[in-house]
Design a protein that fits this description.
mainly alpha, Na+/H+ antiporter like fold, Rossmann fold, 3 domains, 6-stranded parallel sheet
């Protein structure tokens, strides 16, 4: 972009933010994920859409800092000892996967008509998985800390290390003669090692003392500036040494992983990381040259799926060969099937050195961008086609021929607390739940839980619902609770029904269904919390208890009015003012003059110390 060196114009900054704000929520609501939303938004405002930007590579260079900061945050979560435990995955699994994928995709490139030299470079670029996309997916799913996520991260780290020898290899393959003024390769390698050693030394002996001094200043903005300085300084140092900026940031994060300032640094970096990572995806979307796609659509239509399938197949086979279970291998294959952002660097270097020509560079870049765009769609298709394996019921006893005084359905947090009161009174309770993990965890604490889906009539009969005196429905979802209530009222009329309500609307529905007792899961705890807050403010305990009792009474009155009404607007649900119903009591009665705040309470609310 012409004015990239002078900063983006305000209107262009607004267009970037506006495109992201519109596209990302829309795509997430459609179930397509935020990455595809960013890519589509970038395509819409880029040089091949509305033409608000003419040089996406200028933005891409800035946006790469988002990937840099992402890897810094990941490094903060990895202590050196943990990283050392992943060495087999990094160098063993990573090496095998890269080698197999490179051979397979080179064969695909040859089959597509490329020469061996050009096809090999195209395949190597596609081997390098997108760190940004994969890490975003792992973060959204909460899989970063899981063993499967850690193995994927190990492979990504190896690929980040691989970019350096790949660029050296491209330099050897280049047609052009080596610049006489350029330093010899041994000197470049020595510089790279020196910068890495310098970064490690700074991390071990400089960073923690620096943050300790800055923390004493109690200047939040200075701590934020220092966190950015560490990330960007490490990235810049690695770039000077000819290494990956992202790798430098990751190493800096690992060195700070044991620091007492780790959480503060992560909190300071997070806003910048999120914005720049989104900007990176926007710029990738802008980089998709629609003219190249139009000219080479037949090639791209075959090449992109072929390369993705070949890479995914190789990843799956390598994972299975090394003992990974089928579900994790399939997931890794789909998530890592795309090309990566380092491919742009490799292709540009190859084009500059004459290893590949300009049209090939454009086609390879389009292949990588299209594979990035197809990854969210491939993941959605994989989730629908590949069913999760049924949980093993080894050691789990299913509900059959049971009997007791009470049947408790659902042993989540709510059900666990309910069961304590019943078991303390030696009530004969039969508990069923459909979560195998929850049942196994409960058994470790001495609870006997039976496996069964409470929404099925046959399971309820097997659990003895036709003989119990009460059925406690403690499931999480309102829909499941309603289904169980419907079955219990029609099939087990002898049992009293006590139900956990999801919210106020659900409470109204349960009351109309005629259950014997219902309670909103959060209502009573919130009332108790409010009473405790009053007491902390100096309100006498008797008065606080009286206020809480009054809140309960007024809530019951509003609930009764709402149940009596036939039509409920949003306002009516809040106030209980249903059409034709009498005016309800207010939510909170105005404080009477005879009930002044105590001196202690007045002092707290006035932000002054209480009198002594």
């Amino acid at each position: 972009m012409a004015d990239a060196g002078h900063g983006l114009e305000l209107t262009k900054v607004v267009s970037l933010l506006g495109a992201a704000v519109v596209a990302v929520p829309l795509f997430r609501r459609l179930g397509l994920g935020s990455v595809l939303g960013y890519l589509a938004a970038g395509l819409a405002i880029g040089p091949f859409g509305l033409e608000l930007f003419t040089d996406p590579l200028a933005i891409l260079h800035v946006a790469e800092l988002g990937v840099v900061m992402f890897l810094f945050v990941i490094g903060l979560e990895m202590k050196p000892s943990h990283l050392w435990s992943l060495r087999r995955s990094i160098f063993g699994l990573g090496t095998l996967q890269i080698a197999v994928c490179a051979l397979a995709m080179t064969a695909v490139m040859l089959a597509l008509g490329f020469s061996l030299r050009v096809g090999f470079i195209g395949a190597l670029g596609f081997v390098l998985t997108s760190t940004a996309i994969v890490m975003q997916v792992l973060a959204e799913r909460g899989d970063i800390a899981l063993p499967g996520g850690q193995r994927i991260i190990a492979i990504l780290l190896f690929e980040d290390l691989l970019i350096v020898p790949l660029l050296i290899m491209v330099a050897f393959m280049a047609h052009s003669e080596v610049d006489a003024d350029a330093p010899p390769r041994w000197q470049s390698a020595l510089i790279a090692v020196g910068t890495l050693v310098g970064l490690v030394a700074a991390g071990l002996w400089l960073l923690n003392p620096m943050f300790r001094v800055l923390a004493r200043s109690r200047a939040r903005e200075v701590m934020t500036a220092a966190a950015l300085l560490v990330v960007l300084g490490a990235a810049a140092l690695m770039e000077v040494g000819g290494l990956s900026m992202a790798m430098g940031a990751f190493v800096a994060g690992v060195l700070l992983s044991g620091s007492s300032f780790r959480h503060q640094i992560e909190a300071d970096i997070e806003p910048f990381r999120g914005i720049l990572l989104g900007l990176f995806f926007l710029s990738v979307g802008m980089a998709l040259d629609l003219a190249v796609v139009a000219d080479s659509w037949r090639l791209l239509l075959v090449a992109v799926p072929a390369l993705m399938v070949a890479k995914a197949t190789c990843i799956y086979l390598v994972a299975r060969r090394l003992g990974t279970d089928n579900a994790e291998a399939l997931d890794r294959a789909v998530v890592m099937a795309q090309g990566g952002e380092f491919a742009f660097v490799l292709y540009s270097a190859a084009a500059a050195g004459g290893v590949i020509d300009g049209p090939s560079n454009a086609r390879f870049t389009a292949m990588v961008v299209l594979s990035m765009a197809l990854t969210p769609l491939a993941m959605i298709a994989a989730r629908r086609l590949i069913r999760a394996p049924a949980p093993s019921l080894d050691g789990i006893e299913e509900a059959s021929g049971l009997s007791g005084s009470v049947l408790l359905i659902g042993f989540g947090r709510f059900g666990q607390i309910v069961s304590q009161a019943l078991l303390a009174r030696d009530v004969d309770v039969t508990i069923i739940d459909h979560s195998v993990d929850r049942i196994r965890n409960a058994e470790r604490f001495g609870f006997k839980i039976y496996y069964g889906d409470g929404t099925r009539l046959d399971v309820l009969k097997a659990a003895g619902a036709d003989k119990v005196r009460a059925i406690c429905i403690c499931v999480d979802g309102a829909g499941d609770a309603d289904r169980i209530v419907e079955l219990a009222r029609s099939e087990f009329p002898q049992a009293r029904l006590l139900v956990r309500a999801y919210d106020r609307v659900h409470s109204i529905r349960l009351i109309r269904e005629g259950v014997d007792y219902q309670v909103r899961a959060t209502f009573e705890s919130a009332v108790v919390f409010g009473g405790a807050t009053l007491r902390e403010l100096g309100v006498p305990p008797e008065e606080a208890d009286e206020i809480c009792a009054d809140v309960r009474r007024r809530d019951a009155e509003r609930l009764e009015l709402q149940v009596a009404g036939d039509i409920f607007s949003g306002q009516a649900l809040l106030t209980g003012n249903a059409p034709g119903a009498p005016e309800p009591t207010p939510l909170v009665e105005p404080r009477r003059e005879s009930q002044p705040l105590s001196d202690e309470t007045a002092a707290v609310t006035a932000d002054k110390p209480p009198p002594t």
